[in-house]
Amino acid sequence: MMGRLVRGAGLVALLALMVLASFSCKGRGAGPPDSLARVRAAGVLRWGGDVQGGEPYIYEDPEHPGQQKGFEVDLAAALARELGVRPQFVQNDWSALVPSLERGTFDVILNGLEVMPSRVGRVRFTRPYYVFASRLMARRDDTRPQFQVTPQHPVTLDSLRGLRVGTLTNSFCAGIMEGHAEVVLYEGTEEPYVDLVQGRTDAVLFDDIIATRYGEPKPELRVVADLQDGFYSAALRPADETLAVALDQALGRLIERGELERILRGENIWNERQVGLRTWGPTDQARMLGPGAAQSAQGPPPRRRMSLTQAWMFVQASGVTLLVSVLAMLLAVPLGLFLAVLRLYAPAPLAKLAGAYVEFYRGTPVLLQLYVLYYGLAEVINLKPMTAAVLGLAMNYGAYEAEVYRAGIQAVPKGQFEAAVSLGMTTPLALRRVILPQAFRLALPSVTNDFIALLKDSSMVSIITVVELTKRMTIVAVDTRSYVLPGLLCAGLYFLMSYPLSLVAQRLEERLARS
Fold first, then answer.
1. How far apart are CA 137 and CA 147, in angstroms?
2. For residue 17, what pLDDT band results from cuts at 50, 70 and 90?
3. CB distance 224 to 154 below 8 Å
4. CATH 3.40.190.10 spans which residues of the chain?
5. Low-confidence winner among 121-135, 164-178, 408-422, 443-457 (lowest mean pLDDT)
6. Number of H helices, E strands in the chain
7. What does 314-366 look like in DSSP terms, one character per residue?
């Protein structure tokens, strides 16, 4: 027995030495990886993007369901062909494209990624393939001086002070507006213009491509002015220099042959700003990258540390989370009780209607319900973001509370109800004085657990522009290039809010068990 253990330990030690030796040999002999050779060996150029960005970037082909089209789809195919490989699209949330690139989810970002100082050095930008303008739009009936453009009083970023201006999360427009306006962040491109039409924001600043497709067709809106120009470039990891150089050269050939122009004209986005791409050179590239270009050559910039101001913003965001959760639960409890009583004691039509409500809200995602309530019904009922967040969560959790109370009511012995009726009580009186107090006592631990779940589900209200705790965490994580500390702080604050409730639920259950 002892001999087997010795031989086993020796074998494990030998394997460990072999692994260490292999790593040490790789470390001494291997230089920087040849990213171009890697892509060609795989035969695939994996490019990341987000179909939610829609037309004309990447969108579902209406004539061929399940297939994508768009000018960046065509551009990716042309670039892959120049490299002698085939393109492979990888779906990824737009705001998380850079972190996904860094972890190796795909080889290149090709999805309207703007060149920004915060990204220079973190990624390696190719020469641009599109020049856009940041386009400001407002409501047609808005006559405020900020939106009256004259040669003597042009619209500038400074003129946006005090206004609520919508734009895309982690975008060029969000970056240039920082410190100039109250920035309202969105994940999609249609939603900002819906909010502007409804008067929930004062203006929208987006790339002109997006403004043309989603903002200008709305008769209630008008273009105010084009502010700063920006650039779309493909982005790679800084270490993938050989692939970046090959893509630069491939882009140059596409521009020289006029193929890029044909691709852009195919989506009706070619304009005079693109003419400068034909004569693009090292000086233009240095000017586009700005002061961060020198840092890019030396390597990625150091990670920014999380500041005390950002930490305090976490505390404020947790207050928003707690407020939304408490208000929603205060509405969900009476709604659930009302639905439970209807299902058990109301006439058949009302009972079936209450049952249909419960099944509908339990059978559809709360995310979808929030979208429909805030955006889909905007023309019918114009709700503020906080109001929609509270109502949406309350209507969803009211369905779950209905089942909790129904179980509590049915747990009360039927004889108590019969005894109350035999004493001359009406059904409503018997429910109020005999059944519901006992049912509520039995349901209380489950209600407390539901409130803890609601506290965490409140993170979904960020899709309707409410900056709660989880949304604040993602904003800071992108800013500091790390999810570790922001994630730990976010988790800690959620724990501080939910753990006391867990203790309350536990004690209630113990008390009920003893009784």
1. 9
2. very low
3. no
4. 35-129+231-298, 131-230
5. 408-422
6. 20, 10
7. HHHHHHHHHHHHHHHHHHHHHHHHHHHHHHHHS-HHHHHHHHHHHHHHHHS-H
